Task: structure prediction
Amino acid sequence: MNNYILEMKNIVKKFPGVLALDDVNISLKKGEILSICGENGAGKSTLMKVLAGEYPHGTYSGDIIIDGEPVRITSNRAAEEHGIAMIYQEISVELDLSVAENILLGILPKKKNGMVDWKEARNIARDTLRSLNIDSNVNTNVRDFSSSVQQLICIARALVRKPKILILDEPTAALTESESTHLINVLTELKASGISCIYISHKLDEVFRISDRVIIMRDARVVSTYTRENIDPSALIEDMVGRRINDMYPSMEGRLIGEEVLRVENMTVPHPYAPRDIVTDISFSVKKGEVLGLVGLVGSGRSELLRAVFGALPKRNGKVFIDGKECNISSPFDAINHGIGLLTEDRKKDGIVGPMNIEQNMTLSVLDKISRLMFIRSRTEQEKANKYFQSMRIKAPSLKTNILNLSGGNQQKVVLAKSLLTDMKVLFLDEPTRGIDVGAKSEIYKIIQELSSNGLSIVMISSEHPELLAMCDRFVVIGKGRFIGELDKEEADETTILHMASGIESTKVKRASESELLS
Result:
């Protein structure tokens, strides 16, 4: 008898016109951490949704065997009954329920009279959160927490069900570095207690650190398997993308950086729910052809600052200048008219319209330019969309392909094209490579290099510091909603940036007073 807690044999899953899983076989041992890597669209998440009951028995072919016995998983609840819990890439919480209600959703403890035992529920939720190093008021609505804490609440919801098999799909995408490290430590403890984990992540450093085995998927099939002892990063990446990537980051040398294009002065952004400011009195500027890195820990106010400049959030105070002239920006429409574009960190929430195809998503930002007498000129729409469909090398059968059928990296290219169609001067990129694979990241970097070489000014936010260090010419660091300091490319390294972002004094900091560093 083998020692596998899980086997998935000959799994085939089809969508209309798409073979999502092609005769896939995987196995998982008790107490093992198995990572599954591959490009967006390789079939990783689809395979896990089959296992978790999201795609029930009968919608696919093949067998699932748990503890040596074939099982039919017909729903998420059936998966839970078989000891399977899944943490999805998209944060899934009920915003207007409390932390305790979210963690114990569907399994709230009851008293003998059938009423909910709220005291017991709060104790269970509190203990589960403490195992994740979180000490929060479990009576508070989840809406009041950051996305990183919401993700940890999703993890707590899975752990409270005491699964035998825990599936994690990009669990650290919204977490800070310290939270990610803590989660990895928690998974190591779960492994020691006998829980088996399937870990999906595009962060290969995490994969190398945590995995007992790594399975590589490409084009809906398993193409290779590595044990911890024989992991070869270069070979693994080549297996993922089907080609060798010699240089992940393009050379940013030789570009001409011109005069100042955008200047933001004394921007203050109020908190939407609490009587305080998210961002307080921050100023920065960016020049023509420059890539400016906006650096800070998750929750520092980076995204809120750019959204306020873009007019997507109200500001308490602040001025915006384009080419030296003050602009009145009170909405995204105003920002676009002044030549500012924004690529948000959550493309599914703020970037794409699911029922629409590629062409329609691209041209949403220029409907006024492709319309006449309230009717869209289809030929003009197609010509404008096709220009970026070709130049950005979007992998899809045609412009008429529904955007939800694209991989994450190709969706990101469509969102980027939507902004570029507006003839921008300045582009804000908020986590432009979050949740996309290594091959798509390399292509996004090349697009950023080409855009800046053509004179576009770029402000970039990223939680991946190597990415920022490779792509940016200058760095503005903020912490707790305040300006901390500024670094040139030659001065910047990961340690210095982390120290500054954490509020620790550094001799390399420019234009930051002692009081600002200690605030």
User: Anything to note?
Assistant: Residues 177-192 form the longest helix (16 residues). The chain has three domains: 4-241, 251-339+424-519, 351-423. Residues 509-519 have pLDDT under 50 and may be disordered. The chain is about 30% helix and 25% strand.
